[in-house]
Specification:
Elements lengths: L2 H10 L6 H14 L12 E3 H5 L3 H17 L2 E5 L5 H15 L3 H4 L12 E3 L16 E5 L25 H26 L8 H4 L5 E7 L10 E6 L5 E5 L6 E4 L5 E3 L6 E6 L1 H6 L9 E4 L10 E8 L27 H11 L5
Parallel strand pairs: 1-2
Antiparallel strand pairs: 2-10, 3-4, 4-5, 5-12, 6-11, 7-10, 7-12, 8-9, 8-11
Helix pairs in contact: 4-7, 5-7
């Protein structure tokens, strides 16, 4: 029984239990387990429709709300995000089907030379920056499909078609485009908040190197070495869009160094700042540390699924700190680097590239 449940039970028994009995019962519990209340966290909620279809006042209010949330928390929940519920449901359905395929079938979609950027990556291959222990997950990645004559297409490997599940690849394609559209709108709002032209990011993310990743955290079958399914980390990219995971577990590190759980309503997606955007804004917008913890022991036999969209720019985008984000009180923190160079560096740090 968790502490909130225990306290609720005590309150319900107050007519049956004397004050002395309740007092000594609480003393007993405090000796069995440290008497600490769970910390909960409500991230700011914004309505993307206010920006994409609202009037000038609504649009300006959205820009300020989003920007301030990213300065203070680094995470927001977004409603009216434009990604159809049916598409999300189909995506999760086919993702779960894929991960139930036999291991030898899944491994036919694992190509080490692609550094996990397309297709399947088996359990235990990726670890967080600064940690040697692998995360307790397997995943599948789907990347950019260039539909015009943009020469950037030569930089991208083809996506792998999962033959065993015919709707899998077209569903990923449709979801990718929907996430990309919503993410572009959010970046337009961020540009305005930073005092830039609304379309500052548009040419950089058009046919950008974004990734749609489906993650499976399998059931825990033995005592884990740690309580972490995905160790604490920050995302590499500009922003990450995450549709509701199939189970709790996501936590962020707040300014007081407390790990606090983050959840969103079914109709919302969670969107957070990545390191590329933090770097570009010279730490003005926060790439918040987060992790995925193991479930309670009674839920070890359950899987967890999560589908983030990592919105990346084109590899040639310079990540030089914006002049508007540099001042005497906030001096320049980062040396110049391109998005492609930075991604390559980080992939090596997390073990996906040798």
């Amino acid at each position: 029984m968790m502490w909130p449940d225990m306290l609720w039970w005590i309150l319900r028994q107050k007519k049956r239990l004397s004050s002395n009995k309740i007092f000594f019962f609480l003393i007993y519990l405090s000796k069995v387990k440290p008497f600490t209340m769970a910390i909960t966290h409500s991230i700011p909620v914004v309505d993307l429709a206010a920006f994409t279809s609202g009037d000038a006042t609504s649009k300006a209010a959205f820009v300020q709300a989003l920007g301030k949330a990213y300065e203070e928390v680094g995470f927001v929940a977004v409603k009216n995000h434009g990604i159809p519920d049916e598409l999300i449901a189909d995506l999760y359905k086919y993702v779960q089907l894929f991960f139930t395929l036999p291991s030898d079938v899944k491994r036919t979609y694992e190509l080490p030379e692609l550094a996990g950027q397309r297709g399947y990556t088996s359990f235990g291959k990726e670890h967080a920056k600064g940690f040697d222990a692998p995360d307790l997950k397997e995943f599948f990645q789907f990347g950019q499909t260039v539909e015009d004559n943009d020469p950037v297409s030569s930089e991208y490997p083809d996506n792998l078609v999962v033959k065993e599940i015919p709707p899998f690849t077209p569903t990923f394609f449709n979801a990718y485009k929907a996430f990309e559209k919503s993410g572009t709108s959010l970046l337009q709002a961020i540009a305005l908040y930073l005092g830039l032209d609304e379309h500052f990011f548009d040419p950089q993310v058009h046919n950008g190197n974004s990734i749609l990743r489906a993650i499976h955290y399998p059931p825990i079958t033995k005592e884990p070495a740690s309580a972490i399914r995905a160790e604490q980390h920050e995302d590499i990219n500009l922003i990450t869009l995450l549709v509701g995971a199939s189970a709790d577990g996501l936590q962020i590190l707040d300014k007081q160094n407390n790990w606090v759980p983050v959840t969103s309503l079914p109709e919302q997606i969670v969107v957070n700042v990545g390191d590329m955007l933090q770097r570009l804004t010279n730490n003005r917008l926060k790439s918040t540390t987060h992790r995925v913890v193991n479930p309670p022991r009674e839920m070890w036999n359950t899987s967890r699924y999560s589908i983030p969209f990592f919105l990346h720019p084109r590899s040639v985008m310079p990540l030089d700190c914006l002049e508007s984000c540099i001042s005497d009180t906030n001096p320049k923190e980062y040396a110049p680097i391109t998005a492609g160079e930075y991604l390559d560096e980080r992939l090596r740090e997390i073990g996906l590239k040798k």
